[in-house]
Amino acid sequence: MTAETVLRLTDVVKTFPGVRALDGVQLAVRAGEVHCLLGQNGAGKSTLIKVLAGVHRPDSGTVEWRGEPVTFANPQAAMRAGIATIYQELDLVEDLSVAENAFLGHEPRRFGFVQRGHMARRTRQIFGRLGHAEIPPNRMVRSLPAAAKQVVSMARALSHEARLIIMDEPSAVLAHDEVGNLFRIIRELTAQGIAVIYISHRLEEIREIGDRVTVLKDGRTTAANLSARETPTRDLVSRMTGRSIEYVFPDRPVEAAAGAELLRVDGLTRAGEFADVSLSVREGEIVGIAGLVGSGRSELLETIYGARRADGGTVTMGGKALRPGSVGAAVRAGLGMAPEERKSQALLLGEPIYRNVTLATFGRYARGGFTDTGKEQVEADRIADSLDLRPRDVRRSVRTLSGGNQQKVVVGRWLLGDTKLLLLDEPTRGVDVGARTELYQVIRALAAQGVGVLLVSSEVPEVLGLADRVLVMREGRVVRTAPATELDENTVLDLVMAGSLMEGAPA
Amino acid sequence: MSDVKDTSTAAPARGTDLPAQSPPVDPAETVLASEKAGGRLSWWHGEGGEGARRNLALIGVLVVLVIIGAATRSDLYSRPDWVWDNVLSILKLASVVGVVTVGMTFVMIGGGIDLSVGAIVALAGVWCTTVATQSYGAGGMIFSALTVGMAVGLVNGLLISYGRLVPFIATLAMLVAARGLAAEISDKQTQVSDNGFINGLASNNVLGIPLLVYILAAVVAAGWVLLNRTTFGRRTVAVGGNPEAARLAGIDVKRHTLLLYALSGLCCGIAAVMLTAQANSAQAAMANLYELDAIAAAIIGGTLLSGGRGTITGSLLGVIIFATITNLFAINGLTTEAQNMVKGGIIVAAVLIQQVQFRSLTQFLGRNRLTRTT
User: Which of A377, A393, A410 best probes binding to B when mutated, by most B CB atoms within 10 angstroms?
Assistant: First the structure.
């Protein structure tokens, strides 16, 4: 059976200032197949989806859709052409009915009035095609479970007569038995000649539902049209790894850190996020947590820090238990955190650099409640010096800094106080290559001074290169703990992705 | 996707009032080419510059209003002492709303809004003029007004920070409830103040300036210091600018939010005493729509509704501009209806100007400077 190729991408390039997000992507999708896209975080999958969905336009290269070269001016154009995208965060209007969502933006109309009966009938028809005739078209979307919402998203795609449906990690929001149902729907769609681009980190799913696989790495296609069922895992993993840019990691100290135990986490649990996590960090030790987005690692870090309240378990710092759910207590105990989302979680973008650096410490420089901005600037300047901040003027707005320098500001914030343990969540996201190396050196230098570091990153080489000890997390549980030197990238990726959903995943 | 920012226009970002001093930087500093454009910034183009430029524009508006006043009523402006009298009447007009606006500015910079200020003024005014309270003398009256104002503010703060109500809803509810309570206490009657000291606050002058104006000056000065020179002010900007960042930096956002509404309530208590002094009485309907005047003044003064930015100086100028417009209409014998329409227009114009003009003006100035220095 050789169906026609409905979608063909040739040498597609898309750059953003400072980043080459897509650097020559090849992709060919046939009618009626499930084509899987594989790649690590940052490999360019999201950008590729957005190009196909009409959100971004490629800088060069061609996109052929049903034999014709096309460029979509906007998402509506892609939709009209028959390409529908189901994003991970479903873009449904919660307070509209199922039918209204399915036909959002192209409701059947007569004389300017929506034909509600007609719309409900057609929605029911589409649900029939999807094998979900039981979903009532008049129900509010808000009241539906996640799996049913996903079906509504698909109904919307079908209401547009989509010939290609892109699904971005559709299983991430589903429980195990619901995934089986999703696969059944996908099979029905493909049987009707609809092509599906399926994105997932879970190799088992790809094996079960996929026909062919295209692998992306650093914005390039490293392998195209592999058989989803027969290609060995090793091959798939090796195509995703082995980077073209090698980062330089600072040397580990010859002797492993033998400092006193700083942080101890026992049986920490938060329902639906992570369960029974125990770990410890010593003075001067860098502990890395490897795991995918959604594996519970960021939530774990925030819970240790007191920004979320644990359902069970304890966090002790230097032998003393931390008050749960209190960031203030954690900071006073010597914890500091550089959160995942720099701009929304860490920076006051309208404020000068120095006020961002002293955000956690300005109280210390104050006398009787009066701030001492002179002293703050001197201290911030010292930090700027030691981190090689560019530009150096700490009175400039933090907004004008590049991503890497903004990250230095956030890390630098905790160098001012007497931080004993630094929690770093994706410290190099959106940071260019040069600044990365600098940040790695800063982190290692901190450890050399006795600061403990707990590092989360979805980039496996980063965790392996920087950390002394590595915890691998999958679906809310620590599945392996080992010295970094005993692990390699393929092993960790295998562990991280060996995605059977059956191992007691938190719902 | 990308975090890389275009810094080539070197538009100095907004900031609060910063001391003017050249930064301690070696000019031969290694600066990336793309970042070079910003280089070092003079005070005018630097962090404090935008607030200063904005306030200068407000002063410009004020000058225009005064010129219109002088042109339409040249007789009033013919003698210096008459001009001075008119200036004083404008300031007196601005004093009560001005005090309320200082509190409002803090709440708004902190990311909230307080719709209940007018109602709190009325409740505090009525409370401090009951027969029972008046029996304690001026001290008792002032104490009860400030305490009631702050207590109601605390309730607002508790509902918002710990009860997780949206500020708009919580203070809207308080607006209704506090006026209701004021009507209940006063039995819908006007309560006359017999206290000579209180009434004298409005009628007495020191060095030719009404006492009310001194109170406004004191509150504004205290507010300015609190916002710009204390940790409380710094936390206010942080909590309003990025609550999550503030929380993750160890700032107790909830407690601070609570304090902001209490501060606003305290300002309302002060305003209640002033307004009672002006009218020699208090009643449940007093200070009607002050919330709108205060919010409007803060907004044209440059305070962001979304929080994180605002200045006391700007808010004061906003209040004075509105008072000048009221005065302008009064001396020309025009109706308050016409006046309200003009006020509405000014609010829209001020916000539009801030959105459009300042951006381009800032960029224009930034570019000019670059062509000179590079």
Answer: A393
